[in-house]
Amino acid sequence: MLNKSNPIGVMDSGIGGLTVVRELQRILPGEDIIYFGDSANCPYGNKTADQIFELSCHMLQFLGSNGVKCTAVACNTISTMAERLRPCFDFRIISIVEEAAKYVIREKLSSVGLIGTEFTVASGKYAELIHQGAPDCHVVGKGSPLLAALVDRGDFNQHDINLEITTQVDNILSREKVNDLILGCTHYPIVEENFHECYPQLHLINPALEQANAVKTYLAEQNALNPQKKG
Ligand code: DGL
Known about the structure:
The radius of gyration is 17 Å and the shape is globular. The strands form two sheets. It has a four-stranded parallel sheet, sandwiched between helices. The chain has a four-stranded parallel sheet with strand order 6-5-7-8, sandwiched between helices. The chain is of the alpha/beta class. It contains eleven helices and eight strands. D-glutamic acid binds next to helix 3. D-glutamic acid (DGL) binds next to helix 3.
């Protein structure tokens, strides 16, 4: 039985997960939220699986010790290893990658572009999860080695950001003319306007919305929504 007044945990490798906090606050204004952004170790996307696992366990232990009733793993890179993390913790871990994949399946997309960290794209997790419900969907991914770190250090040099976006997205479009692009890293919705400017024709999928809805559904099912007016 979850305690309604306990907080929701949100974690990310840095500030990117605040895009999930923004959506949670919009749809669940009564919830208290504990946010852990590990900017000291960001970016995660260029680390090994074992390094990411170890750092993630530290964050989850901290959140667990603060009594979270569930945790939204806002970081796509960490979410690719949700199955490895879940057995270590006794609260629900909600993976942003799983929720984004469900959106692609629900929308019956025949193809979709994916930009994320190199780790996320190389893990193949997005394609694996999408293919569970949409086996014929073409998932065309490209990892960005730079974009998350530029955003996390607040380096909003427009030229550098647009150059990194166009380098990676042009590569995707040269392989398949997709109409939809998953922003597969929580840091990217912070520069969503840059994506729009560079590719006004693309529909951008922000997985933060899907994840926030999944948190709400889970808490409602558990009868654990916080009744207070403002968190
Ligand atoms: N926030 C991470 C994600 O969503 C990316 C940033 C990083 O490389 O640490 O994948």
